[in-house]
Amino acid sequence: MTGKDSIYATEQEVRDFTFDANVVEVFPDMIQRSVPGYATIVSTMGKLAGQYAQSNSNLYDLGCSLGAVTLSMRRNIDKENCRIIAVDNSQPMVERCQMHLKGFKSDVPVDVQLGDINELEISNASVVAMNFTLQFIPQAQRDAVLEKIYQGLKPGGVLLLSEKIKGENDIKDNLLIDLHHDFKRHNGYSELEISQKRTAIENVMRTDSLSTHKNRLEQIGFAHTQVWYQCFNFCSLVAIK
Ligand code: GEK
Description:
S-adenosyl-L-methionine binds at residues 38, 63-65, 88-89, 116-117, 131, 198. The protein has 241 residues and is α/β, with parallel strands linked by helices. The chain contains 8 helices and 8 strands. It has a domain at 38-166 and 205-240: Rossmann fold (3-Layer(aba) Sandwich), CATH 3.40.50.150. Helix 5 (139-152) links the parallel strand 4 (125-131) and strand 5 (153-166).
């Protein structure tokens, strides 16, 4: 059973955020109450994966956490001989993900791997999903990761990317942050929780603006990039090779 996220409910000396066993325990509640439209994003990523999956190919879920996107993709794949590779570098996440997936039957095999995206080989891919994961990769390494994904994708393959984004200037950024904090308040997080969480993630999650994301994907060679979702500073896009 997973519980309610109260990790930052009491005043504490805030350390850098990690995806440890305490976070795993409350992760579904945390992400649901923190990311506007999370359920819609996950189900739409599954639909897009169903649309772009090619027979005899791999689909990747990078930074899979508990496997929400993996499950959503798997429900929608109707092509032959597809395989999902789900990767996360948090051992407690991977263990819980493996347990969770056992509860669902499907003909599409899933390989859940403990590993760092920076070191992962990507090949024969029709779909690569990164649902709020690139933001945790140091900014200096993001080009290389996306370049590797591009090289590993088959022609017509897609990257499904969701990110928390930075506003294009300080005024726009503050506007989006305020709206997001209101959303969190509405979902029961206190001022203390909001502010301590902000401190915890400020060193480990650096956001890029939407224009930075789009320019980088274009530079790498993606033929088309389309935003299909944005609410406040949360954005999902599809990039087609
Ligand atoms: C979902 N996609 O529920 N290599 C592998 N995994 C990593 C790395 C890395 N270098 N860095 C971070 N992670 C999920 C939600 S959460 C987003 C993704 C969030 C993993 C990390 O351990 C965590 O499980 C995930 O990326 C990010 O749709 O919590 O905001």
